[in-house]
Amino acid sequence: MTLADGVQLVSTLILAAMVIGAALGVVLFDNIVYSAFTLGGVFISIAGLYILMNADFVSAAQVLIYVGAVNVLILFAIMLVNKQEVYSPVPRRWIRKLSAALVSAGLFGLLTVMLLQTEWLPNAAQTAPDSTVILIGEHFFSDYLLPFELASILLLMALVGAVVIARRESIVGEDTAIVGEQPAPVLELPERPREPVA
Amino acid sequence: MDVANLASQLNAGAILPEGAVILTLMVVLIGELALGRASAARWTPYVAIAGLLLSVGLLCLQWDLTPTLSFLGSFNADKLSIVLRSIIALSTLVTILMSIRYVEQAGSSIGEFMTILLSATVGGMFLCGAEELTMIFVSLETLSIASYLLTGYMKRDPRSNEAALKYLLIGAASSAVFLYGLSLLYGLSGGETHLSAIANALAQGTNHLGLLIALVFVIAGISFKIAAVPFHQWTPDVYEGAPTPVVAFLSVGSKAAGFALAIRLLTQAFPAVVEQWQFIFTALAILSMVLGNVVAIAQTSMKRMLAYSSIGQAGFVMIGFVIGTEAGYASMIFYLLIYLFMNLGAFTCIILFALRTGTDQISEYAGLYQKDPLLTLALSLCLLSLGGIPPLAGFFGKIYLFWAGWQAGAYGLVILGLVTSVISIYYYIRVVKMMVVKEPQEMSDVVLNYPAINWTPLGMRPLQVGLFVTLIATSIAGILSNPLFTLVNNAVVEVPHLQTANAAKTPMAILPTTTPELPAPLVSNSDSTAL
Amino acid sequence: MILSTLIWFPILGAIALALVPSRYLKWAALILSGSILLGSLWIAYQFDITQPLIQFREDLPWLATLGLNYQLGVDGLSLPLIILNTLLTWIAIYSSPEATERPRLFYGLVLLISGAVSGAFLAQNLLLFFLFYEIELVPFYLLIAIWGSEKKSYAAMKFLLYTAVSGALIFVAFVGLVWLQGADSFAYTALAGNTLPLWQQLILLAFVLIGFGIKIPLVPLHTWLPDTYVAASAPIAMLLGGVLAKLGTYGIFRFGLGLFPEAWGTLAPGLATWATVSVLYGATVAIAQKDIKRMVAYSSVGHMGYILLGGAALTELSLVGAVAQMFAHGLILAILFHLVGMVEAKVGTRELDVLNGLMNPLRGLPLVSALLVLGGMASAGIPGLVGFVSEFLVFQGSYAVFPLQTLLCVVGTGLTAVYFVILLNRTCFGKLDNAIADFPKVEWRERVPALILSLTILFLGLQPTWLVRWSEASTHAMVAVLPPVTQVTTLAQVLDRE
């Protein structure tokens, strides 16, 4: 083992521990703001893992998009809502917790066994490229052209959808529409809600 | 690699039909932006319809071309994908016909609605031809995210919000699981993303456990899309809360895309574990047929009933999928085509009823015969066709499926299919009974106050056209099914990997069959006693 | 082409009724059904009775992938049933009350059923038969559920589910046969001479028997019958008992006996016993009924047993008798349901304990009662009437093969006489209670159907050749193709006895 390999191994272990620790924090903190911040920690640790794998562009994108945008957005959403709600304790909650733990542990065990058993084929291109950006760009404009272009449609649609959902509807259009004979409020299903079953 | 060289390799003509849909989407979006909502609403639906028709026309023109991979292997425009893409485009077409009035009456913008719907269509159509993992995932997500948005389109209605949130959460989880499965495939094959390359790489390896886990994860993602039991939990709530045209699209277009994905991904990337995935899908088919049809009996809301019935129908379709014969795939796709018309016809009818009366409770349909014979006739025929009553299309679709299943030796599945069909007749006929049998004095209040039938308001004519088109197709598509079935059969025959899935299975047949022209049966042990 | 006309003329006519003004609806329906009746008679006229094979063949390619082709044909087995179907359709339409609600739908559905039933009798392709067999499901459901009497909804649903299950069983049998045989088509002729091992035949035959047994119905698959027949209005009950039940017996003969002769021969003693059980059960339960319509309904269960007995015996005579019995039973059940319906309409009750002295020439319903007596006599097999001819043929043909079962069935006929005597004695004779004897007058046109039916019953009873000549050649051919094994055993039994 050369020095570089040793550094790589130690860094991987540290980053993995950070990922796991931060992920546990996301799940276990009662305060949702703490959870959001630890989620940022998860993202940054994963970005570190990407760097170790020579994926510098992906790593930068990870920090920019997930930490810079997604995580900040989550924090904003939490701050804007900021609603304190006291949850009444669910009776027999431990059964759910236990079963969830069992399922997760089982899945973890299965995946671990699978990872250890499998002979992973090494990737053919072993040498690290000079610049990953160029390589990614080449892929985007050759064999991944179609998904790349389709992603633009996806983004456009998501944009339109976000506007549709977020828009204040009372500015445009009238307030009531006609359903059957009776006026009905806009943007609701024409079917009346069911009467609660007694 | 210079540009000209690249362009010639792309073979971009293969995605012209999708291009037509994207262009339509742009025209609709920009037209509404430029001219304002009110004036654009008068022509954008027709542009969308024309665009979809153009797309179907382009698909027809592609039929005779030799299928080649385009976009360096990302997209496969073979006949199978042409048929499935046409099914999705047609389902969107009919959905738009029925949604114009619905969205108009809800006081919302039809342009934006159609933009999202058309992008869902683009996603679904690309999914049908996707040959590569990235492409599969991006197109699947395009379809899914558009579906979440559409589900929550009636944003002031708490039911719609609830449906959208549930759909989003469960959908995101299933996408994540699916993606995990894809990443395992990528890893196991040594960094391949093209399905055929993955199959080649996996054929040499012995990584059985990893492959199985990948298979299970992938199937979980697909089953969510086709709403197979036990991945169906989202269906009833989403179907009840989503705007009805969206439900129609989800139950036909989205489901067809899911089956297209299943055919392509499972037969092509998992030839090593054919028996396993056929076994899993057999279990899914049994559960879907039983649970979907049995729970549908207890429903009081039409939308919920159709939700469960669509789960059951997906179970029937899966019979054609699991037997793995050419006839099976052909009858499955044929059934999807038939199902398109009858299910969308039924949805058109319940939209019309909901628009006129503001309810979708089955009990409120009582005595509709007296007030609206056309609607009664159309809904009755569509429901009876779903139940498989001759001479309607659904009967022939089921006969094709069951016959293919029987030929392949899946007796148990076919008999279960027959039994559950009988159950399904019970709940479909219950609605027919409500509408036709009830006497005038038993008429429900909303039917008593039924508004005068008026086809003039904006969007009613398209609805009427949709009603007639689906009604006629449901009535005669079965009787005239020979050319349609031949078409679908040709599509299946020319796809090589459907034969490989077959060939991998042949050694299972222990004894030579007395009928050499028939495919080898699936269930070899019962076969050995039978011969 | 003429056979297709029998199917498509009424079906298209049913659709065309949507355009006919309401006043002329019944007339239009009568003309339509009358013309198909004439058409079927014309076929009978053109029919070559010496020819045992399928005649008037029509064969058009349809769905080749499924092996479903449009193949029609008629032989001695189906011809009488076709005539029965068209005749009863006409009578059902004629006898339906003027004030039928939603006449457009009613006549349309009746015509639709007529076309579908003709199609089933004519189909020479198993899948085509199945298609027509299933088509009548929903129209009958609606006819019972809309125009029925009390408990109609329940009865209609029961009918629907039983028939749907029966369809599923038959489908399994057909598909199984074609698959095992390795045929690429469901054509009857391709499957008739199948060479399957006996045990496979037996399994398939069991599906066929249970499937059609529900339709006929045979005990213990009959539980839908009393509810359905009683809930249905008189014209519909006529069609149900007269025509629909014949689909079951026809199916058993054509697709049970015709396709699996070997297995049929093996099962024959069991079938004969089953038939006997049906006969005795139907007759005994009928005796216990207090409702005359229910009584007639149960009488049908018994009479269906004779048909099965005739089929099981597998002699030429018994088969001719069985076919004749199908026709005779159709006529007799139709007249009984018609008259019972009329009694109910005029007197207002079907209770045996209430009805009395309808024979009263002044204040009763003398002609109706007289015809009821005739119908009861025909049903009980009194000589000179059509019921006697067919039952006698069945018994004479089967006695040699299954003496014990035949004797028990003869006892069943005796029991039939018992309950009809009870019925007639209570309803027609005795003193008419003056307090309730204020019946509406029976119009002449209401008597026409009963008169036509009773004349036919009388005529065919006196001139039985007209009844049996159609099917003699076909049944002869049917017996002739039976594998030698069966014939030897039956012959041996016959010789033993002599």
TrEMBL record, chain A:
Q: Which GO terms describe its cellular component?
A: plasma membrane; transmembrane transporter complex
Q: Does the keyword Hydrolase apply?
A: no
A GO molecular-function descriptor: NADH dehydrogenase (ubiquinone) activity
Topology term for the membrane? Multi-pass membrane protein
Q: Where in the cell is it found?
A: Cell membrane
Its main subcellular localisation, reduced to a broad class, is membrane
Q: Any idea which UniProt keywords this protein has?
A: Cell membrane, Membrane, NAD, Oxidoreductase, Quinone, Transmembrane, Transmembrane helix
What this protein is called in its record is NADH-quinone oxidoreductase subunit J
Q: Which organism is it from?
A: Petrachloros mirabilis ULC683
Automatic annotation (TrEMBL), chain B:
Membrane topology, record value: Multi-pass membrane protein
Question: Where is the NADH:quinone oxidoreductase/Mrp antiporter transmembrane domain positioned along the sequence?
Answer: 130-424
What are its GO biological-process terms?
ATP synthesis coupled electron transport; photosynthesis, light reaction
Q: Which PANTHER family match?
A: NADH DEHYDROGENASE (PTHR22773)
State the protein's purpose: NDH-1 shuttles electrons from an unknown electron donor, via FMN and iron-sulfur (Fe-S) centers, to quinones in the respiratory and/or the photosynthetic chain. The immediate electron acceptor for the enzyme in this species is believed to be plastoquinone. Couples the redox reaction to proton translocation, and thus conserves the redox energy in a proton gradient. Cyanobacterial NDH-1 also plays a role in inorganic carbon-concentration. NDH-1 shuttles electrons from NAD(P)H, via FMN and iron-sulfur (Fe-S) centers, to quinones in the respiratory chain. The immediate electron acceptor for the enzyme in this species is believed to be plastoquinone. Couples the redox reaction to proton translocation (for every two electrons transferred, four hydrogen ions are translocated across the cytoplasmic membrane), and thus conserves the redox energy in a proton gradient.
How this chain assembles, per its entry, is: NDH-1 can be composed of about 15 different subunits; different subcomplexes with different compositions have been identified which probably have different functions.
Q: What is this protein called?
A: NAD(P)H-quinone oxidoreductase subunit 2
User: Which species is this record about?
Assistant: Petrachloros mirabilis ULC683
What is this protein's gene name? ndhB
